[in-house]
Amino acid sequence: MEFDDPASMHRVCAERLGEKAGQQFAAMARRGFRLDPLTDDAQATGRCRLGGPALLEPGTPWPELGGFPLSLHAVLDTDALAPWLGDELPTRSGLLNFFYLDLDVPYEEYRKLDTSGPEVCRVIPADPARAVETAAPGPARSYPATPVHAAEVTMLPDCWDVEDGDVEFDTDEYWGATSLILNEMGGLDGNTAGSHCAFGWPDTSYASKVTYRDADGPAIHLLQLAEDAELGWGWGDAGTMYFTIPAKAFAAGDFTKAEADMRCC
Prior knowledge:
Blueprint: E1 2-3, H1 6-17, H2 19-26, E2 30-36, E3 49-50, E4 54-56, E5 64-65, E6 68-69, E7 71-77, H3 78-85, E8 95-100, H4 107-110, E9 121-126, E10 132-134, E11 146-147, E12 149-155, H5 177-184, E13 197-199, E14 213-214, E15 217-218, E16 220-226, E17 240-245, H6 247-252, E18 259-263
Antiparallel strand pairs: 1-12, 2-12, 2-13, 3-7, 3-11, 4-10, 5-6, 7-8, 8-9, 13-16, 14-15, 16-17, 17-18
Helix pairs in contact: 1-2
């Protein structure tokens, strides 16, 4: 769930959850972006875009799985996003290229690949001063280059990414923290469904958790890609693709630990 104004977010949390639980929930907020189409009033944010060629440093090998190249789906310009993210962006990673296995081959060829491991996706950083446009080799798919405007928002986790220890609740009234948020935050829950988003928290309206946790806390959400008919990609029935990374790896700028998770109805 997202808010254009952090003050209104705190007010809504207190009104719906009570002062204490409202403060606890508001403290989970993260800064993020909606990736919106360009308009006269909303220009491209740096080199952020969907589709197009990759922006890689010379000599960087194109990522592949089992000899098949992955497809480039998006590029985020973290230098352009840094002023809003502040301390939530611990390292300046320059350009982030997001790849996922998406081949233009017969299904019989595709099914030979092991798509259960983390190698099905890749997030590759690049120095903006050295990055050059790199076309996708076949049979990877190429999508039209679509610059986007990164609209600054403050995001709260949806109910499925909240755990019982995050907020206090009446155990006689709610079966868990998920139930509290689902019931009391009402129509605000899951309102990024069908949108492309970066950082913040993902939409998890498929009644399942996306942001897994380890000893260092919840994973960092990097990118949410919704089904997009104009770009020509889809993720099953009303599906969404999520890229996340463990908090410790993100703090170290180690994007080899990034993972992708596709959810659909």
